User: What shape does this take?
Amino acid sequence: MKYLPLRNLMHHEPRERTIPGPLNHQVPYLRLRMVTQAKLVNLFSLLGRFARRGFDVVLAGLLVVILFPFFCVRGALVFQRLGTIFERVVYVGRQGIPYTQLRFVDNSWGKHTPVLLNVLRGDMAFVGPRALKVEETNEHGWRNAFRLDVLPGIFSPFVLRRNIKIAHEPEEAVDMEFIVSETLMGNVGLISRALIAAGLGDKTDRPSPSTLTLLGIPIANISMDQALDQIIEAVNGSQKNLVAFVNPDCLNIAYHDAEYAQTLRNSALVLPDGIGIHLGCRLLGLSLNTNVNGTDLFPRLCERLAAEGLSLYLLGGGRGIAAQTACCMQDTYPNLKIAGTRDGYFSADQEKDVVEAINKSSADVLLVGMGVPRQELWLARHYSALTPPIQMGVGGLFDFYSGRIPRAPLWIREIGLEWLWRLIQEPGRLWRRYVIGNPLFLYRVWKQSRSRGMS
Assistant: This one.
């Protein structure tokens, strides 16, 4: 047997194979396989596009037939009152081609239902990036260029998250994620989530003051980026700052616990956490800017701290939980500085040593996860002794990021049911908080709205 030299083996080219048939020509085998795979991918992509378009046409046509009597009656009533039926708004469609969208001129229910005609015409799809007006396209420029390759949608993943107040990522990033992963079943799921969440959405022009007051507690009505900017700015400032998150359970506790309520009022920044705060704002006739919950803020905070060269101390949770959280976040953000970690199981006699350890670490941000109201009261009690510029209570945050408890999938968060996911995980511990606490909170806010309306 004859062996090839090692250098020849290392540089050995794949053999050409004869393709059977009348031409009997030579084609490199690997090249043929790659071309075939590319053609199959293109074929499946084309079939998927036809399937999605077929779904849109069939569903839109069915809805137009069902709603035709409604269109006629509503149009007649509108014409009788206002002397006209539709208003026309120009949007930019696929390939930058403008199209006109019809709407009923009044603002009652069903104002946007004529958009079904745009789906039948091929101007829009049921699911896609938000339709942009001409001025928006000019304003964003190249950032929206990729969106012109697809049809705009009646239902948009970004708009769904924005209405539920969890649109923390830029719209361009959400649209790109949708475009590269779009499937027919995924579109059906998004339509279903949008319909389920329709009652929770915030589409009316309610006032959105910079500070919201629920049950006597002032809450900052800001975006996620604004919250992060304020935290980083405070770290570089000359004063210490307490930061707290409040959800309906927190506000129920503060309703009866005067010391905890006063601690929240004394905090430099109180941030809204959860769909319950959004619903409470609606009862007051106000609009929540963003659900700035700690679970979504934490990784973004770690990213900002890593970029700024600032350090973090994690205090709380069970044995090893804080340390595991620190390891997980450093895997994601290698430049993140962890000044120290410690679990939350220590006696009153050990508190002085804990405070000294935190101060010796020279941490810029201290996160304390001991549960409400213990963590806020502990921080308030040791406020004068602690040196980190930012001191923040974060509840059970470490359990999520250590991997001990899985967080609700995004699709559950998009319909405002993360609380139900938590209840299913720990029903024995959380049933009172959610089953009794949530309705009680909304009742108390409703009473607040009534007293404000009568004053």
